[in-house]
Amino acid sequence: MNEFEQTYPFQNFPLPYPYNALEPYIDEKTMHLHHDKHLQTYIDNLNKALDNYPQFHSWTLEDLLRNIDFLPLEIKIPVWRNAGGVYNHQLFFKTLKPAGAEAASAAVAQPILASFGGMAAFKDQMTEAALSVFGSGYAWLVMDPQKKLSIITTANQDTPIALSLYPLLPLDVWEHAYYLKYYNVRADYIKNWFSIINWQEVAKRYTENGGKQS
Ligand code: MN3
Q: In sequence order, what E strands does 7-162 have?
């Protein structure tokens, strides 16, 4: 069972690399704080919200996020925020890899070329989107039901899932993701993030969701 197949009680999965593996782009202390404290808090709060609602204990994160309107009013907001927080963070950590990120895997390079005109244009648009997030949120590479790629931003812990978009690659621009190392300079953090993208994981998500292998 992986992060996205799990159901209540939700648990934290270990990072798929050591805490210091993303140095110097993301520092070890930030990774500990981000994974062990911030993500853990979303997990604890999600479980707490669902404790007394066994009818939802077989639902995955995606089930909860897609069907939020079926939840009782009193837990709708905490489940939305915390299931989003768990989903977004687990995907964020999973789509990072130790430095030396290879070029985009062929499976996803072709659709990036088709949708954005090339990797440089993708980087420019992703950077612009991530810089435009006011306050806390994410920039995303997503695919729509027609398998076309685009870039969107979301606020807080909102997810593309609820918009019927399939998230391929999130960029967390909450200050907790970069403040210890980059202080207020989000642009430097974004620039460095491109060096630690796990393109194999992105390509895997693309093909698993029905995108054509090039
Ligand atoms: Mn975060």
A: 137-143, 149-155
Q: 115 CA distance to ligand 1 centroid (A)?
A: 27
What's the half-sphere exposure (Cβ side, CA atoms, 13 Å) at 44? Answer: 7
> What is the DSSP secondary structure assignment for residue 152, as one 8-state letter?
E
* Distance in Å, CA 214 to ligand 1 centroid: 32
Token output for 27:
């520092």
Question: What pTM was computed for the model?
Answer: 0.95
For the chain, the 3-state helix, strand and coil shares in percent, each to the nearest 5, are 55, 10, 35
Q: What is the pLDDT of residues 98-145, one digit of tens each?
A: 976 567 777 788 899 999 999 999 999 999 999 999 999 999 999 999
89 CA → ligand 1 middle, Å:
6
Distance 174 CA to ligand 1 centre (A): 6
Q: Which two tokens stand for residue 105?
A: 């895997």
* Ligand 1 center–CA 34 separation, angstroms: 6
CA-based nearest residue to 59, from 12, 9, 96, 22? 9
Edge-to-edge strand list for the sheet holding 149-155: 149-155, 137-143, 166-172
